[in-house]
Specification:
The protein is of the alpha+beta class. The protein is built from 19 helices and 32 strands.
Amino acid sequence: MPKIADKYLAVDPWKVMEEGFDPVRNRVSESIFSLGNEYMGVRGYPEEGYGGDTLLGSYFNGLFEESKVDAHYKGIIKSLRFMVNAVDWLYTRIAVDGEILDMATSTFSDYRRELDFKSGVYKRELVWHLANGNRLKLTFERFVSMRISHLGCQRISFEPLNFSGTVRVLAGLDFSVLHEDQGRRYWEALQRREENGITGILGMTAQTKNSLFSGFQLEASNVIENVLVTEAEGNGNGGNRNDSFIGRELLLRLEQGKRTTMDKLTVNMAEKDVNRAHEEVWHDGLELALRYADIDYDTAAAQQREYWAQVWEASDIVIDGDPENQQGIRFCIFQMYQTYHGDNPGFNIGAKGLTGEAYRGLAFWDTESYCLPFYIFNNPKAARSLLEFRYKSLPYALERAKELDCEGAFYPIATIDGTESCDLWQHSNLQLHVGTAVAYGIRHYVNITGDISFLYEKGLEMLIQISRFYATRGQFGQQTGEFGYFGVMGPDEFQLMVNNNCYINWMAKKLFEYTLEVIDGMRDSGAFAELARRLALTEEEQANWRVKADRMKIPQDKKTGIYEEHDGFFDMPHLDIHSIPVTEFPLYSHWSYDRLYRYDMIKQPDVLMFMFLYSSEFSLQEKRANYDYYEPRCIHESSLSPSIHSIIAAEIGRPEEAYKFFEFATRLDLDNYNRNTREGLHTTSIAAAWMNIVYGFGGMRSDGDKLVFHPSIPDRWERYSFPISFRGTRLVAEVDKEQVVLRVVNGPAVDIDIYERSYRVDASGVKIGLEQAKVG
């Protein structure tokens, strides 16, 4: 089933640009032009208000609300939590001669917007044609500070083209925002007042059942000539309820041909402890606001440019000969840093980041499987911070395991705070692979960074508790006596309530082995003795894990080398996936739910996924056999699916297939391939696009003791390069049509394998002819 690009954005290596306004595509653009800084995110909605199709989204990491679930059986969750839409801190209303600007009804021209990857600034401009013939050029700029997590910055410029006069502007904080996914407004105002006099700080504190929030407007004006008319508490130009809005109304004098600018800076503070006194939250927010009261827009913007310059120096991927994918991969890297950079330990990454309400802002196993590698090789601090979230939420995982009649820790399939928030029992109870993803993430992080302190202080405790869950959730089969997992669902969500899913079994086996390996390495230390005492870990329990690892059932046809996805998969009815009409996609919307589970059709890689994660343990012949069997059965209903197929296709010598799967990876959202970008960006798929280049065409593998590279280059590319960090050393790989060059740009020399030969790589680099890339 082909996925077709919806191309409407201009191609530029360092920007995303939209020229001309298309109301049908507006929500798509709102997602693409989203801004974030890990702490908060805001969609690219028009701050002046828009009467057309829009999702006004302002989100804060970990800020959630809760709804009840009717649960009739033990083990099914009773409530779910979701990221709640919060304050519209960009709120602005603009009126001239009684006419209010609204792109849904106003006449305008010369519309353009752009998102600059070098500055992190979103800019939008248009010429407003008023009913009386006057024309006013408006330029809107905004960014969320990457240096100061709490700070959001907004600038609006007015330039009358054929008149002089006045413009009335209402700017403020609005808590009456609709949470569209739930169809209701959640916030109740607690306090709203001005501090330090009429030109001082406007502030507001509000709450939901589970969240508190304090926001402060630092500046409502920084203009050439302006008259402050009144403090606006409601109605005014915006029609807000009095209890949900605070702002200022400004009357700006405009002179023909001159530019008048208004700046507004806002400090936002999300408080997750609802038991704190409201007055305390107000004063904490005010203290933050006063701390940053002296900063101005231009200073904050300069800091923003410096931050992004450092990002691109450390993480830029350069592609010559493919301008669309050059733009695409920089968009992906930009969004990865916007989504997460490790400044706020304990946060996680939702499937849509902070760009929309789909998936309710919840984090999945994708975090460790797809996102974590990007941070491990580009920002180890952020990688550790992601794992810190799992350690912080370990108590919830321990409780969840008890609900499923097991011991140890059962990490949730979907979460925002560590509790399970998936209300579909077949996913929340049967998808066991999150714990093994966490364990693999710990192993991968420690292997690449060398951060043994994290492993011993926190990682091993998680490994032990995860191992306990898998030891008690599995059983021995009656006939074979092999150990495995019954009544499960693996990464392939088109196979429900199966036995011995090969991915789960393989990953559990590796979990047991790695946990025991770490214990052996730490056994003689006093820290391990204390941990073992605290967790009541015995030699008998460890021996039990060894038995279960050794007797784990790994279903495989020994003649062909093909791993059976689960017991009985080879005998399932076959369906030619190419016979499915394109009008029936997505299948979840057009097929009855049970129909999905009747065939050997798979949603996303399952067997191929564990073969990628543990690449060094499988021969090239095994990878070819399993790729040839499972690729024709994969429908790619997950946006994560194509990247793994592309990576393995490149490895086994299928360059055309590799590029076919890759070609929409970096532009999945930019070109709206799945026709659902309007719901928010595919954050974990964006991470997979990075993997597609580094692991796919770069041929890097990182599951062994050394990094391994087997680079290739797509026919249409002239050259590409990418940097990675490995155990304190920063390397750059450069590949063109003739050679591969790997060199150290910072740090000590490292030992790596290139085309199955070992090299000591230092600052002078290693050069190898590309002809050695031919697959045997």
